[in-house]
Amino acid sequence: MKLKVALIGIGGMGKNHFNIYKGFEDIDFVAACDIRQSRLDLASAECPHMHFYTNYAEMLEREQPDIVDICTPTYLHAEHAIAAMQAGAHVICEKPMALSSQETSMVIAQAQKTGKTFMAAHVVRFMQAYAYLAEAIKTKKHGKLLKLSLRRISATPTWSWENWFLDKQKSGHVLLDLMIHDIDFMQSVLGEPEEIVGAHYELQNHTNFASAIYLYDHCSVSIESGWFKSNPKFTADYFAFFEEGYISLNDGNVVECGEPVVLAEKDAIQSMGINISHADGYASECRYFIDCIKAGKSPDFITPESSAASVALVEKTIEKLAKL
Ligand SMILES: NC(=O)c1ccc[n+]([C@@H]2O[C@H](COP(=O)([O-])OP(=O)(O)OC[C@H]3O[C@@H](n4cnc5c(N)ncnc54)[C@H](O)[C@@H]3O)[C@@H](O)[C@H]2O)c1
Question: Which whole-number Å values give the CA distances from 208 to 121, 153, 176, 224, 276, in the listed order?
Fold first, then answer.
């Protein structure tokens, strides 16, 4: 029997996940839900055999899915994840896991109570360029990591449903929405830092930029993340400086000690220890979750506790940064 998969939220990221599940032949992608009829019309034109809903509770009750993928705005993640697990489904949920540590605890408690599996989709951990770096840090192939710089720059997101990204109470703004990608990557590889210093610039025009330094025992990590009203091209890059070498990501290209690195599918597969059949991070995270559920295995590559730790680290960062 194929696993029945349903999706809640068919906005920007939800449509991406929709396209991915459409292409998976070993699942039954049965249903999708959005409160906007226009998004349902778009999806049903592509997959008329699926069932579409404007009410997620009705979808959960009627379809009884094995897996629910949540791509709704961040402030709805906890509500939707808890409802899906109560309805008997395993849950994969877009990052961040939830809006606050209070909510991440509620999600973890519900997973424990129902025995259902929950995974937050931290796509950066699945991206080959980052998986390659994580492996190099872990194996110390160039000696110990001394300094890591992570940078992520975006235009101010004004394209979302009802502009929810610009409402801090709904998205957590740039730190919880954008910077969490790199905070989560750092936390998953290096654990909790000992100290945090830096600054957060929040302008009235929705330019919102944070620059933080995380001090560890043997290394330091700087993370810079920003939404800019001036509309820059999306950029995500890194520079890792080791005792005996370096690895950098720039414009999508990984360079290791002066040599270009050709990332093969197997690089990502090896570092995740489970069958990953797509090179793309978004497809990989969905594939990984489905394979874990099929195998009756907990997704140990991303645990709910480590996703909750990333939300907590965002909260700590907000507390520590000077407000400019
Ligand atoms: N991993 C990544 O790289 C990445 C990138 C972008 C967004 N995200 C995350 O994905 C999530 C969604 O972001 P987005 O950019 O797709 O936002 P979006 O505004 O484009 O889409 C959200 C969708 O949810 C729908 N929705 C709202 N309330 C609903 C409800 N009660 N039931 C059903 N549908 C409902 C809206 O109609 C909309 O279509 C956010 O948590 C965001 O942080 C992740």
Answer: 24, 10, 12, 11, 35
pLDDT at 312 over 60: yes
- 124-273+301-323: what CATH class? alpha beta
> What are 226's strand-pairing partners?
153, 209
- What digits encode the pLDDT tens for the residues 10-43? 999 999 999 999 999 999 999 999 999 999 999 9
67 alpha carbon – ligand 1 mean position (Å): 18
Residue nearest to atom 4 of ligand 1 (CA): 13
Q: Is the CB of 39 under 6 A from ligand 1?
A: yes
Separation of 37 CA from ligand 1 center, angstroms? 15
Phi-psi region of 230 (alpha: psi -120 to 50; beta: other; left: phi over 0): alpha
Render pLDDT for 214-241 as a digit per residue (tens, 0 to 9): 999 999 999 999 999 999 999 999 999 9
What is the domain partition of the chain in residue ranges?
A: 3-121, 124-273+301-323
Contact by Cβ (8 Å): 231, 240: no
Nearest CA owner, ligand 1 atom 6: 13
Report whether residue 14 contacts ligand 1, using a CB cutoff of 6 Å.
yes
Ligand 1 pocket mutation pick from 8, 17, 19, 34 by most atoms within 8 angstroms of CB: 34
What's the rounded Cα separation, in Å, for the pair 25 and 2?
9
Ligand 1 within 6 A of CB of 157? no
- Name the CATH superfamily for 3-121: NAD(P)-binding Rossmann-like Domain (3.40.50.720)
Task: Tell me the per-residue pLDDT of 73-91, one tens digit each, with 9 for 90 and over.
Answer: 999 999 999 999 999 999 9
CA dist 48 and 64 (Å) reads 19
Span 284-305, pLDDT tens digits: 999 999 999 999 999 999 999 9
pTM for the whole structure: 0.95
